[in-house]
Structures are given as C-alpha cells and as structure tokens.
Design a protein that fits this description.
Oligomer: single chain
CATH class of the largest domain: Alpha Beta
Bound molecules: 5'-O-[(R)-(carboxyoxy)(hydroxy)phosphoryl]adenosine, zinc ion
Distance between the termini: 29 Å
CATH topology of the largest domain: Nucleotidyltransferase, domain 5
CATH architecture of the largest domain: 2-Layer Sandwich
Strand content: 15-25%
Shape: globular
Amino acid sequence: MRVLGIESSCDETSIAIIEDGKILANTIYSQLEHSQYGGVVPEIASRAHLEKIDRLASTVFQESGLSPQQMDLIAVTDSPGLAGALLVGISFALGLHTRYRIPITGINHLEGHIFSVLLENPGLQFPFLALVVSGGHTAIYRVDEIGVYQCMGQTVDDAAGEAFDKVGKMLGFCYPAGKSIEKEASLYTGTNNSINFPIARIWANPLDFSFSGLKTAVKYFLSSKDSDFIKNNRPAICESFQNTVIQSLRSRLVAASQKSGIRRIALVGGVACNSRLREELKKCFCNEIYFPSTLLCTDNAAMIALAAQKRAEKGITRFPQMNPSASL
Ligand code: KG4
Ligand code: ZN
C-alpha cells in the first residue's frame, strides 16, 4: 500500500510517501520565519505553508519516482493544530483526491506522533504507553491498538516543549529553543540540578503535568539576578530547568507504567529529540523504551501516512474534517 502523507498543523510543512510502512520520501520545511517572534505566528505559518506545499509535493514524487496516480491513499492531518495552517494541507489533499480520485483520510496529529515510533520499530507490540512531548502537547496514552487509546495523564497548562521555548526566550535563544537549551545545559560541569526549580504536583490526577509554575519560577529567578550573573550561569540555569522537566516527565511515566502494568514505552514528539531525556528514561525502562530518530520526532508527514496505513488496514479511515479546531 502506498500512502501520500500531508502535514501542516503548525510550523512544519511536510509531504511524504510511504510504501507498506517504509519511507520512500519525506520532505520537511521548518518555517524559520517565526524565530524572531519567539513563537509561531499563525498567519505567517498559513502563508508559508501555501508557498511551499506544492513544491514539496513535486519533490517527493520526483524522489520516489512515483506519480500521484500511483498512490492508494492520501492522509492529511486535520486536527489538532492552527486552523489556517491545517486548512492549507486539507485543501491541498482534497485537490489531489478530487483530481486523481484517490481515497482520502483525515488523521489526528497526535495519533501520527504515536505511530511515528513504528516507522523504525515496526515490530513494537501492543499494548504500549506513549509519552507524547511536543511544543503543543504533553500527555501519556495507553495504546491498545490502532484507534484505541486512553489518556492517562496530560498537562493542565503549558506543554513541555512550550516551557523549553518560553524559558529559552527569557534566556535570549531563538524559537524553537529546545535544542539550544539542551546544548547550553551540556556545557554545565558542576553538580546536577544546582538551582532548585519546583516540580508541580496535580492532586486531582497524579499522572497530570504542569509546567507553567516552573516557567514562572525561572522568570522570578532570572529577575532576581543581574545580567552578568545570568550570562556566566546560563549552562547551570539550562541544566537545572531541563533536569526539572525531565524528572517531571520521568516520575509520571514510571507511575503510569506501574498503574497499567505496561513496561513497553514509546517516547515521541519534538521534545523526544532531547538526549538527556532519552538517557534518563532508558535508565528506567532499559530496552523496553522505543523512540524515533530525531527527524521523525518533530512534525513530519511520514508519521501521518503510517497512521493512515494502519487505519486503512483496519478499515477505519474517515473523510477529513473541514472544521479545523485549535484544541483536541
Ligand atoms: O513535535 P514538534 O515538532 O511540534 C509540535 O507538535 O509541537 O515539537 C516541537 C517542540 C518545540 O517546542 C521544540 O523546542 C522542542 O520540540 N524540541 C526540543 C528539542 N528539540 C525540539 N525540546 C527539548 N530538547 C530538544 N533537543
Ligand atoms: Zn507535533
């Protein structure tokens, strides 16, 4: 089965072709247009998707040596995401669907992230727990099979990636700041967690996360110091912040694993690129933790195509929804 995947939910425009679960082509344009604003500007994102999407499609057809007529299914992200950005991908997908009469399905972006891990680990067995950590989402899902998910815990405010990006902005890094914070933290040579930032606990559901208090704690810490101190201690600040996020993610994941009795873990989403996070979770789950390579952690269309292939195999595809929504 050949699937054309289309992803445009936020600030990555991506088109991919997969054949029986294997990637034939996967092009990604990461919009640098937002770096100076400290976050994604929705209108700029929609325009940038419009400018790039058809060229990316031509590239994947060229790279794979295939034509649109040879596709068995079109898969497009239709929620959640930025409304205008989603509409660009959906309209493009519907254009191909109408012109070439190829079946089409809408895919949930988070379902795409969950299945991104299977692109390189096709043998991963159900059930598993998926820790989805990105710029827009932080949640733990119990995955019993394609289409059967239970959210065990999620952030009640900011996503983990959002916390990285906002703290990065306070420290003068460009958006997205996750990678820069990780790099700066790696320069720290002192004792781990030298600055004690708080880990929030959510009493209503101990598996939920909260990162807005941490972000505020970093803000107050920085405002209590002069610029020379901040300049000389950026690695320590980044290391302590990063470590606090990692401990928060780790403790919930361990608790979710104990509660469900499931030891197989998938770590997915942009923050899963973080090598310290990978190392810490490997210590807890040894060889039962799976993660995609960094290119497939961040937003990409290959993961959307794979989720669609899995749905098609089960006969549970659906027409894309044309009422894009910013929330789940
Ligand atoms: O999955 P993704 O591409 O987009 C969303 O669906 O949100 O994730 C992007 C997020 C950004 O917040 C970015 O700062 C974060 O992933 N990120 C990282 C790292 N690389 C990307 N966070 C921490 N460490 C990294 N190495
Ligand atoms: Zn994403």
